[in-house]
Design brief:
There is one protein chain. 39% of the residues lie in helices and 16% in strands. It has a nine-stranded mixed beta sheet, sandwiched between helices. Helix 2 packs across helix 3 and helix 2 packs parallel to helix 8. 42% of the residues are buried.
């Protein structure tokens, strides 16, 4: 029987990935397809933490002259909607799930506590982290890097691809198979923001970036199949 390559992973899901072809809000058919390989890996004993973005509902940086702190707080609330949506689908698949948020909202989620999150993971529960870092001016990419470092994740899985230029605009765009965090920071490749990349580099956390168009890639990545781009 094949054994997973990683014991504990941090999966970063963008809000756009959860919107699917609808481009806005949550497409539960898409979320179901994403959750199937997550369940498959959890059933194999992989400990899975998930950080969700909120771009399918709100992007504070694109909203004119709005106060940045308030805009970011609105974005944090958008991530909670997504966290609850993913939790609902996983629970319908009989996966044990806990949602933790960086801001206190005790009626709907646990407050994030590192030791409690690790204990959930050790018990086989998928833990979904909402509200980013809980502080404005930090992206959910940074939240993924921070949570990965705190829970001792073996790898961060991020859905996308890494190219030397935009493959949607250029037919000759070249996909990278392997990169260093030095390359990410100095070539401005847009894999993740510089704060997140620096945090991963300082904590020696590898990043595996791959396409979510085929959600099976989540399972393949965790099992060690060579897909996407590895940053280390």
């Amino acid at each position: 029987m094949l054994q997973p390559k990683y014991k504990r992973v941090l999966l970063k899901l963008s809000g756009e990935a959860l919107a699917g072809k609808r481009k806005h809000g949550i497409d539960f058919d898409t979320v179901t397809e994403i959750c199937r390989p997550i369940k498959k890996c959890a059933d194999l004993g992989v400990q899975i933490g998930i950080v969700v973005g909120g771009g399918n509902f709100w992007r504070g940086r694109s909203n004119g002259n709005m106060n940045r702190t308030r805009a970011d707080h609105m974005g944090m609330l958008a991530t909670v909607i997504n966290a609850l949506g993913v939790a609902e689908v996983l629970e319908q698949m009989n996966v044990d799930v806990r949602v933790q948020t960086s801001l206190q909202m005790q009626q709907i989620a646990e407050l994030y506590i590192k030791n409690k999150a690790v204990r959930h993971l050790e018990k086989g529960r998928v833990v979904i982290f909402g509200c980013g870092t809980g502080s404005p001016f930090f992206s959910t990419d940074t939240a993924a890097s921070l949570r990965a470092a705190e829970i001792g994740a073996d790898v961060i899985l991020m859905v996308d691809g890494v190219y030397d230029k935009d493959p949607k605009k250029y037919d000759n765009a070249i996909k990278y198979d392997t990169l260093s965090y030095f390359d990410v920071l100095n070539k401005n490749l847009g894999v993740m923001d510089s704060t997140a990349a620096s945090m991963c580099k300082e904590n020696n956390i590898p990043l595996l970036v791959f396409s979510i168009e085929n959600p099976q890639n989540i399972y393949d990545a965790i099992m060690g199949k060579s897909i996407g781009t590895t940053v280390k």
